[in-house]
From TrEMBL:
One of its GO terms (cellular component) is nucleus. The lineage of its organism: Eukaryota, Viridiplantae, Streptophyta, Embryophyta, Tracheophyta. Component of the proteasome, a multicatalytic proteinase complex which is characterized by its ability to cleave peptides with Arg, Phe, Tyr, Leu, and Glu adjacent to the leaving group at neutral or slightly basic pH. The proteasome has an ATP-dependent proteolytic activity. Non-catalytic component of the proteasome, a multicatalytic proteinase complex which is characterized by its ability to cleave peptides with Arg, Phe, Tyr, Leu, and Glu adjacent to the leaving group at neutral or slightly basic pH. The proteasome has an ATP-dependent proteolytic activity. Keywords: Cytoplasm, Nucleus, Proteasome. Component of the 20S core complex of the 26S proteasome. The 26S proteasome is composed of a core protease (CP), known as the 20S proteasome, capped at one or both ends by the 19S regulatory particle (RP/PA700). The 20S proteasome core is composed of 28 subunits that are arranged in four stacked rings, resulting in a barrel-shaped structure. The two end rings are each formed by seven alpha subunits, and the two central rings are each formed by seven beta subunits. The catalytic chamber with the active sites is on the inside of the barrel. Component of the proteasome complex. It comes from Trema orientale. PANTHER family: PROTEASOME SUBUNIT ALPHA/BETA (PTHR11599). CDD domains: proteasome_beta_type_2. This is Proteasome subunit beta.
Amino acid sequence: MESVFGLVGNGFAVVAADTSAVHSILVHKSNEDKIMLLDSHKLIATISESGDRVQFTEYIQKNVALYQFRNGIPLTTPAATNFTRGELAAALRKNPYFVNILLAGYDKETGPSLYYIDYISTLHKVDKGAFGYGSFFSLTMMDRHYRSGMSLEKAIDLVDKCILEIQSRLVAAPPNFVIKIVDKDGARHCAWRESIKDASVVPSA
């Protein structure tokens, strides 16, 4: 019952993901971080089988770092997204990765952005997006409450609404969620939700 969703606000993008590692009816972990920092101003959130998810995101992360090391400048968010999409497409007919991705980043020239990439390499730039069983409910909540240019406080409140809806509606709902943001100050952890009663929404430095 994996869930990942994100949205773009006024000068930032926020991504949330459940932290459950499951196989069939077994829960292996409840603190698995499914949102990886690609570099100082990019986040990649994925849902998939654990092997594909870890291998593919680490492969993308190392190649983004390699590009910056060789050229002295980081990839922009659109460039990193197109590289990620290209690698998924190249693997599709050889040894496909069954990963669904939300990639968020912040660029000095263009500001925050969020990209949707599914396992068959479909790519879209979006203001809000989601994957997994939780997407049925998080997309509904975002369609109802999302507004362009939201403040961070309102965005986190909407994220909490989505988490509450997922935990209320899914039969086997994930108990924990991690929330991360990216803005002009960089990509970083924002909050951890064990239940909606956790009201701490102030981003850590």
